[in-house]
Amino acid sequence: IGDSMRGRLRSEDAHLQLGGLNNYLDKLAEADRIIIVGCGTSWHAGLVAEYLFEELARVNVEVEYASEFRYRNPVISEKDIVIAISQSGETADTLAAIELAKSKGATIFGVCNVVGSSIARATHAGAYTHAGPEIGVASTKAFTAQVTVLTLIAIAMAKRKGTITEETYRQLLIELEHIPEKVAKVFENASKIKEIAFIFTYARNFIYLGRGLNFPVALEGALKLKEISYIHAEGYPAAEMKHGPIALIDEDMPVVFLATRDSSYEKIVSNIQEVKARKGRVIAIVTEGDKLIPGMVDFVIEVPQTHEMLTPLVSVIPLQLLSYYIAVMRGRNVDQPRNLAKSVTV
Ligand code: F1P
């Protein structure tokens, strides 16, 4: 989260800090349905937004891979609002999805990083993430910046709709201000994450599991590992494990659990037990001070406690670091992974 984002969060009036979207907050709050489109990491940020928009603003949300949406014949009309998310603002699939939705009369909002990019220009209005240039191909700070902007949109909508109390509104904004220092605290655990990376440098597969807001984080953790280390990794909702992936668990399978203290905690604990019973090697991302999970798993990485709705902003950081260290130890070029382009323009 860059300085400009920090400045943005300093204001109590989150709804005044959303750039071009400020003029459209009524329209957003009145929407019956919001369709979110994006690719890769941006799609994962969209999935986080689905939880936030539904939970806080009680609006119907659909999240679509732009790369599929553009080739379907989706039912969409002038009543719909589409939010397109893109770091580069140049992703061809996302641009095509926007054009399709526009041709059916929908209103298109953008959450982009690159000012004046093609996607920013194709939308009716939007909010920039201002995360600064992503030097590497794989999105990292772009993800946290996208989630931050989407959180502000959720809070602004919820305030207008009266779906959150004044107290929750204030709590969320105050806690958002503390996120940068909490992210910095995760970096204090970097040497521990590096040790874990060393142990798993030559793993052939990884599974990432999370529930609720930590489910998209599990997907993002798996994507980061794939992109920069070329290790096969899959993210799943932890509750989905019993419907198939559990067959993969044995003593050679590292399983990363997003197990922060939130409303899913008890259920995640029983998912961990299921994996340990099958001898899986568990790395758990836990909230600082957790007394139970460290006694059950092979490795723990602590993250600071935050408001449940803001969890992804903190819990994704150790996963990005784990991927980074594993990739470096495998001798990969983390800034320019093979086969990947910063902007996928075809
Ligand atoms: C989407 C994306 C990135 C990924 C890689 C390829 O880009 O899938 O998430 O890390 O760079 O492109 P964007 O639309 O967010 O720029």
UniProtKB/TrEMBL annotation:
It catalyses: D-fructose 6-phosphate + L-glutamine = D-glucosamine 6-phosphate + L-glutamate. Its main location: cytoplasm. Its EC number is 2.6.1.16. Keywords: Aminotransferase, Cytoplasm, Glutamine amidotransferase, Repeat, Transferase. The active site is at K342. Transmembrane segments: none annotated. GO terms for molecular function: glutamine-fructose-6-phosphate transaminase (isomerizing) activity. It is found in: Cytoplasm. Residues 24-163, 196-337 form the SIS domain. Catalyzes the first step in hexosamine metabolism, converting fructose-6P into glucosamine-6P using glutamine as a nitrogen source. Homodimer. This is Glutamine--fructose-6-phosphate aminotransferase [isomerizing]. The lineage of its organism: Bacteria, Pseudomonadati, Bacteroidota, Cytophagia, Cytophagales. The gene is glmS. The chain holds residues 266 to 611 of 612 of the full protein.
